[in-house]
Amino acid sequence: MKRTLITLCLVLSILSVSVYAQSDNAQPDRWRGLILDQSTPDDAIRVLGKPASDRLGPVAVFKIQSWLTKRTKQKIFRTLEFKKPEGIDKAWLFFLDGKLVAINLDMKKGISPAGLSNIYGIEFQPMVGAADVGFRPRDYERNQGRVYPKTYPTVYSMVAVSEKSFVDAMIANVPSFGGALTRSMGIPDQPGTFPGKVEFVTLVSRTLENRDGVNVLK
Q1: Is residue 80 helix, strand or coil?
Q2: How much is the CA Rg of the chain, to the nearest whole Å?
Q3: 3-state secondary structure of 97
Q4: Each residue of 68-125: pLDDT tens digit?
């Protein structure tokens, strides 16, 4: 009986540690316990305190996202801005019909883009436009069926798709003196590396996904 109780306690301890570890990890559909498609403005204020601003209107940050529905630009979002939450310079939370649909984080401490996949547990890839590859094919290379820039621009994005969200990370690639010199000489970046630091991370609900024309293609 005593051995059974000890075993049961050990199992419960392991399970509790496992659950805590999972909840403690960054997840692509939430931030600070605020969950896309579930959390409300009141939830955000309870967790983060009084916002620096609270406004209604279209959201400019969505205009650059081709994978979002065009009607997104016409919708009226409630946007809460929070300044200096722990580890973050600014955070913008966007609500549609009373539910959180997007989170935009201005990173106070730049993190390496190579670490994004491990942080969120999903694969990130640099965003490469088909037109850019078509017009300048020599500037790109293929690796395992994917296309990568040989030399990364000063600003670029890395994106990932999860079951419930899109994650878009904006990378500031300001090279050191040596990096600028090699770039000016036309020497490509080292294959398999993602240079720069993450400056913005945007989590977007897939409820805003562009599905225009879906009825036509059924």
Answers
A1: strand
A2: 21
A3: coil
A4: 655 566 678 999 999 999 889 999 999 999 999 999 999 877 789 999 999 999 999 8
Joined tokens for residue 179: 């990096």
Label residue 183 by pLDDT band (50, 70, 90): very low
- Whether residue 91 contacts residue 84, with contact meaning beta carbons closer than 8 Å, is answered with no
| Pair of tokens at residue 177 | 């003196």
Q: Where are the beta strands (DSSP E) in 4-154?
A: 30-31, 34-35, 53-57, 77-83, 88-96, 99-111, 125-126, 140-143, 146-149
* Alpha-carbon gap, residue 121 to 114, rounded angstroms: 12
Distance CA 141, CA 156 (A): 16
Q: Give rounded-to-5 percent helix, strand, coil for the chain.
A: 30, 35, 35
pLDDT at 185 over 50: no
* pTM listed for this prediction: 0.74
Contact 80, 95 (CB under 8 A): yes
The C-alpha angle 117, 120, 125, rounded to 5 degrees, equals 35
Torsion of CA 121, 27, 75, 94, to 10 degrees: -140
Sheet bearing 165-172, strands edge to edge = 53-57, 77-83, 88-96, 99-111, 197-205, 165-172, 155-161, 125-126
Instruction: Return left, alpha or beta for 37; rule: phi > 0 is left, psi -120 to 50 is alpha, else beta.
Output: left
Give me the residue spans of the domains in the chain: 28-207
**φ, ψ at 89 (rounded to 5°):** -75, -50
